[in-house]
From TrEMBL:
<protein>
    <submittedName>
        <fullName>Lipopolysaccharide export system permease protein</fullName>
    </submittedName>
</protein>
<keyword id="KW-1133">Transmembrane helix</keyword>
<dbReference type="InterPro" id="IPR030923">
    <property type="entry name" value="LptG"/>
</dbReference>
<dbReference type="GO" id="GO:0015920">
    <property type="term" value="P:lipopolysaccharide transport"/>
</dbReference>
<feature type="transmembrane region" description="Helical">
    <location>
        <begin position="108"/>
        <end position="126"/>
    </location>
</feature>
<feature type="transmembrane region" description="Helical">
    <location>
        <begin position="338"/>
        <end position="361"/>
    </location>
</feature>
<dbReference type="GO" id="GO:0043190">
    <property type="term" value="C:ATP-binding cassette (ABC) transporter complex"/>
</dbReference>
<keyword id="KW-1003">Cell membrane</keyword>
<keyword id="KW-0812">Transmembrane</keyword>
<feature type="transmembrane region" description="Helical">
    <location>
        <begin position="309"/>
        <end position="326"/>
    </location>
</feature>
<dbReference type="Pfam" id="PF03739">
    <property type="entry name" value="LptF_LptG"/>
</dbReference>
<keyword id="KW-0472">Membrane</keyword>
<dbReference type="GO" id="GO:0055085">
    <property type="term" value="P:transmembrane transport"/>
</dbReference>
<dbReference type="InterPro" id="IPR005495">
    <property type="entry name" value="LptG/LptF_permease"/>
</dbReference>
Length: 365
């Protein structure tokens, strides 16, 4: 059997794919509209609390938040879109006509599964190129309570590091390794846990085992006087990874950047299990679009006139939502170290793939 013969006719395949995509993205659009409206009720007060913020900032927040909501609820939309499509095909006896023509259950589902692969590819690209950047930008904006901030996407902001007895705060970190550059440096110099002076500098670069700052100023707490220091080396024995990898947010990083950060963390001898689970899930998550038609297929088979079509649709929804529960549970266990990263990301997908196949075969019999 060739691949072309595995699918229904070209007309029928395009008809099913169009139904599936129309319902999926219609549900997604409705969910995004409703949830974004509810989210704005919560956040608009905080955005407008900063003097000078107005409609432009509200729309900026919407443009950053919508990709997050769409990414989160796309799998749910695919599940509901699959069930609605298959239920309508069953209700109109189109599934019976396809099976009467000699097609198996897998052949009936083939157009939806192929469309699910396309949706998964779009979802991964959307998450990697748009959602990660929007999340990074929004998180940095929230840290300053929605105040104006020149944001360089992908850079680290508001990083705190302890060096010897001093505390070092950096407003923004650019680059990585020995090429890392620090901007907006503040050093809280302490003796016996008491603040002695505060050193500030606009810029710092790597110098030997420390960091050289230029045009530095020091405020003496005891006298209340400020003096210019010029160039000085601070933070000796403070490694670059302590700044660049002080906080690695998997949701704010693209797949390639996260993979690179995990490698740097391993070299620095730090734990990476939770991040590795999140890395694998960036692949497993979008692939749930392929799984949803299989889990919702229980609503496609069986005689609609038997009056059990609604019950079968509910069973399909239950299987789909049970997958999401298992997926979140596995990720949580992976973050706790109870599951290996690969297992935490892929076990729910593989488990429900087998469950979907078993239900489909049992239904076809």
């Amino acid at each position: 059997m060739t691949w072309a013969n595995f699918f229904p006719s070209r007309t029928m395949s395009l008809y099913m794919a169009r139904m599936f995509l129309t319902r999926t993205f219609a549900i997604l659009g409705a969910l995004v509209l409703i949830l974004q409206s509810l989210d704005l009720l919560t956040e608009s007060g905080a955005i407008l609390a900063y003097a000078g913020n107005g409609d432009a900032e509200i729309w900026r927040y919407v443009s950053l938040r919508v990709p997050q909501i769409a990414s989160t609820f796309l799998p749910y939309s695919v599940l509901l879109g699959s069930i609605l499509t298959l239920s309508q095909l069953n209700q109109n006896s189109e599934v019976i006509a396809m099976k009467a023509s000699g097609l198996s259950a897998h052949q009936v589902l083939a157009p939806l599964l192929l469309t699910g692969i396309a949706v998964a590819a779009i979802s991964f690209t959307f998450n990697d190129r748009i959602v990660s950047r929007a999340t990074a930008t929004l998180e940095q904006w929230k840290k300053v309570s929605y105040a104006p901030l020149p944001i360089d996407r992908g850079d680290r902001a508001n990083v705190w590091v302890k060096g010897d007895n001093n505390l070092i705060q950096v407003q923004q970190v650019r680059g990585r390794g020995d090429a890392a550059q620090l901007y907006g440096v503040t050093v809280y110099e302490r003796q016996n846990r008491s603040l002695v002076s505060i050193l500030t500098a606009p810029h710092a670069v790597r110098a030997g085992d420390g960091w050289r700052v230029d045009n530095a100023e020091r405020f003496i707490v005891a006298t209340g006087q400020k003096a210019k220091v010029g160039s000085i080396v601070i933070g000796r024995n403070v490694r670059p990874d302590q700044f660049t990898l002080a906080h690695v947010d998997a949701d704010s990083m693209a797949f390639g950047a996260l993979y690179q950060a995990i490698g740097d963390l391993k070299v620095a001898g730090r734990q990476t299990e939770a991040l590795e689970g999140a890395l694998w899930h960036k692949l497993a998550g979008p692939l749930s679009a392929i799984l949803m038609p299989l889990l919702g297929a229980v609503s496609a088979f069986g005689i609609a006139r038997s009056g059990k079509l609604f019950v079968r649709a509910v069973i399909g929804m239950a299987l789909g939502f049970l997958y999401f529960v298992a997926d979140n549970f596995a990720l949580a266990m992976g973050n706790l170290g109870a599951y290996p990263p690969f297992l935490a990301a892929w076990a729910p997908f593989l488990l429900f793939l087998m469950i979907g196949e078993a239900v489909l075969l049992r239904t076809e019999e």
